[in-house]
Every structure is written in structure tokens, then in C-alpha cells.
Design brief:
The protein is mainly α. The protein is built from 7 helices and 2 strands, in the order ββααααααα.
């Protein structure tokens, strides 16, 4: 194809064939549509993640009006994108996020809003990507905890609280209220913020080929 004397070519050097107009429709190559749809669903996970990160940072809570619709939306979008396969992956991702964090909710070392956010993000991301996000969240939360401990000079108290929590986890007994994250006097780590940061970095990295 030529325009104003210029010959346009494909990426392999062959000349473009003539066509009737600039807006002629050409089929998208097979095997491209499904990955594009999946990536679009993953990118949508950044929306509830950003909102949850903001609410957890600002008010230390993640509301149900965000997490429950987000979980349903993740399942629905995956189902629309890739059918039953997408729905199955979405349910597995949600189940993974909820199942892994459930013990920490039961011993009250993690809030219910954080737990439901993990299920919602898992519904968007699926199990394999949710594992990566959970591992990254632990690292980000750990970094935030170290900064907070040093800043508030509570190293000894924090180590005692961690010991109480781990003992409660392995003995299946609830710890005392003095080590609960619901205690306003305790040094609380906004786990939802850590999860939101990790989810956004992961999805953006995937979109740009960094992860």
C-alpha cells in the first residue's frame, strides 16, 4: 500500500496489500483475544485495591460495600472473559485468599475487612497470581511493621505480642485482648494498605512486562 508516494510495509518487510479504506476490519489473530481479556480483568483488580488501601489508611477499615461487590465482580468478569474456566479460576483465587488468612482472622490478628479484601482480589487474579500477591503483601507489611516499630520505639513489646500470637495460632486459643489489633493502643499495621500496594504493583508490572 502506498500513500503520498510512501510504501508501507509489515514488520517482516513485506508490502501491505491494498484495501478499500482505513477502517476496514481485519480479524484479530487467534490466541490473542483470551490473554487480552484476562489481562483486562487483572487490571480491574487495581480499582478495589486502591479504594481499599485508601479507606484502610484513612479510617482503618475496609467496608463491606467495597469487598462484597468486588468479589462478585471478579467472578463475573472472569466468567465473561473466559467462560467456565475463568469462573473456576476466580473461585479458586477467592477461596485461596480467604482460606490462607482465615486463621489470622480467628485469632484476631487480622481484621475481617482485610480478609474479605483478599477474597475479592483473589476473585480477580486467580490462585497462581493471588499466591504472588499474598507473599508480596507479607513482605510489604513486614517492612511497614519494622518502620513503625522503630518509629514508636516498641521493639520489646512487639516481640512479646508476636510470641503471644504465634502461641495462640499453634495452640488454637485466642490471645488476650492486649495483643489484639482491635486495641486502639496497639501498634496496628494496615494490612489492607500493604495488600493494595502489592496488588497494584503486581498488576501494573504484569501489564508492562516487569513481573
Amino acid at each position: 500500500m502506498t500513500l503520498a508516494g510512501r510504501q508501507f510495509r509489515t514488520t517482516d518487510g513485506n508490502p501491505l496489500p491494498p484495501h478499500s479504506g482505513w477502517f476496514s476490519m481485519r480479524p484479530i489473530p487467534e490466541g490473542v483475544v483470551e490473554p487480552m481479556l484476562r489481562q483486562g480483568v487483572w487490571m480491574l483488580a487495581t480499582i478495589p485495591a486502591l479504594i481499599a488501601g485508601w479507606t484502610d489508611w484513612r479510617w482503618r477499615r475496609i467496608p463491606n460495600w467495597l469487598t462484597v461487590p468486588a468479589l462478585l465482580a471478579g467472578i463475573g468478569f472472569n466468567c465473561l472473559a473466559t467462560g467456565w474456566t475463568g469462573a473456576k479460576e476466580s473461585l479458586l483465587g477467592a477461596g485461596l485468599g480467604l482460606g490462607v488468612l482465615l486463621p489470622f482472622v480467628l485469632i484476631r490478628s487480622l481484621g475481617a475487612g482485610d480478609w474479605k479484601l483478599a477474597g475479592a482480589l483473589g476473585a480477580f487474579l486467580g490462585p497462581s497470581r493471588m499466591i504472588t500477591v499474598l507473599l508480596g503483601t507479607v513482605l510489604v507489611a513486614g517492612l511497614m511493621a519494622v518502620i513503625l516499630i522503630i518509629w514508636k520505639k516498641r521493639v520489646g513489646r512487639t516481640l512479646r505480642n508476636l510470641a503471644h500470637m504465634f502461641r495462640a495460632l499453634f495452640t488454637l486459643h485466642l490471645p488476650g485482648p492486649e495483643v489484639s489489633l482491635d486495641n486502639p493502643e496497639s501498634s496496628r499495621i494496615p494490612f489492607g494498605v500493604a495488600m493494595a500496594v502489592t496488588a497494584v504493583l503486581y498488576t501494573v508490572g504484569k501489564a508492562w512486562g516487569w513481573a
